[in-house]
Design goal:
globular, Butyryl-CoA Dehydrogenase, subunit A, domain 2, 369 residues, 53% helix, two-stranded antiparallel sheet, seven-stranded mixed sheet, alpha+beta, Butyryl-Coa Dehydrogenase, subunit A, domain 1, 11 helices, Butyryl-CoA Dehydrogenase, subunit A, domain 3
């Protein structure tokens, strides 16, 4: 993707999200269980082609890659778009692509690309970092299919997804299964969370019928690959949201008058805004570098660096945005707290900065001669 193509994609996404995701609409949607405007969802899929941007053409997508997808996630993070886009496009789609199961990809991807269905992934049953040793579901064979048992306490958009891709242990090891909803034995309960713009549900599996994707016991490597894509996508989202917080703070600092002058003219505010800019640019560099790498060991290292750097930068910038706004920034009526909530939750999803620092040390040590 050339710089001009990236700019064009960014501009198109920004104009669209600014139009369909103003603050008033965000607050309306986050008060609902579904948390999504179906008409906007279909526009995103069919008019902008965002759902299939990183899906190969034979499955109905545009055939682009992770750099293009990262641009979209930056703009979605900036606008705090309420939709199951992350669970469908950053989780389910990469998981299907990494499975290597052409039959499953042809069965599920076209409907995800055209927006007629949504999907999510149950990894460890929580939103923690991917760990094959922490899989919470088990599967037993039932004729040609399987039955899933167990609980998943935190699943992104788990209560609304049409397809649930669930990781479960069989007697052969870590395996991937697909469940179409509603399904016999499947319980789904939406949960109240800190970030109300991103929906989470608790799922229970009581002998739920499921279809195996890929080889029985052979899913671990593909899941690790898909997990890296999700980590990079959330880092890109954090960059976009952090940039929006910086823009909000600078605009307010110019407009807010105290003692006959704008507060942005005070040295303390200038320095704080400058520090915010440094954090945002550092985070952007880390996320863009990770998104531009092919799958492999170097991408694994860059993904952890990006998640660590972007998580810390976004949270600090979101808090500074509130501080610069003063008392109004801490109120429910102001949007600053919405970004702070997103910053805190994305810091925890798929591994905290401390987790990725430890993961980075392990990856670097294992690759040293």
């Amino acid at each position: 993707m050339t710089a001009s193509e990236a700019d064009a994609l960014r501009q198109a996404a920004r104009e669209f999200f600014d139009a369909v995701s103003p603050s008033t609409r965000i607050r309306e949607l986050m008060a609902t269980d579904a948390g999504c405007d179906r008409a906007v969802w279909e526009q995103m899929a069919n008019e902008l082609g965002l759902h299939g941007i990183a899906v190969p053409e034979q499955y109905g997508g545009a055939g682009a890659g992770l750099p293009e997808l990262a641009v979209v996630f930056e703009e979605m993070g900036a606008a705090l778009v309420c939709a199951p886009f992350f669970s469908t496009v950053a989780l389910a789609v990469p998981t299907l692509l990494a499975s290597g199961d052409d039959t499953a990809m042809r069965r599920y991807l076209p409907a995800l690309v055209d927006g007629s269905e949504t999907a999510t992934v149950v990894l460890n049953g929580t939103l923690d970092a991917w760990d094959p040793a922490a899989v919470s579901l088990t599967a037993r064979r039932d004729g040609t299919d399987y039955r899933l048992t167990g609980r998943a306490d935190r699943v992104l958009d788990g209560h609304t997804a049409n397809v649930i891709l669930a990781v479960a242990n069989t007697e052969n090891g870590t395996s991937l299964f697909a469940v179409r909803t509603p399904a016999e034995g499947l319980g789904r309960q939406p949960m109240a969370t800190l970030d109300r713009t991103r929906k989470v549900a608790a799922l229970s599996f009581d002998g739920v019928p499921a279809t195996l994707i890929g080889a029985d016991g052979g899913a671990a490597a593909g899941l690790e690959q898909a997990y890296r894509v999700a980590v990079i996508a959330i880092a890109a989202e954090q960059v976009g949201a952090a940039q929006r917080c910086l823009d909000m703070a600078v605009t307010y600092a110019r407009e807010r008058i105290q003692f006959g002058r704008s507060i942005g003219s005070f040295q303390a505010v200038k320095h704080r805004c400058a520090d915010m800019l440094v954090l945002v640019e550092g985070a952007r560099s880390a996320a863009e570098y990770a998104a531009g790498l092919p799958d492999g060991d170097e991408q694994a290292v860059a993904a952890s660096v990006a998640k660590m750097v972007c998580s810390e930068a976004f949270l600090e910038v979101a808090l500074d945005n509130m501080r610069i706004h003063g008392g109004i920034g801490f109120t429910w009526e102001h949007d600053a707290h919405l970004y702070m909530r997103r910053a805190k939750t994305t810091q925890l999803i798929f591994g905290t900065p401390d987790h990725h620092a430890q993961r980075l040390a392990t990856l670097v040590t294992s690759s040293s001669p």
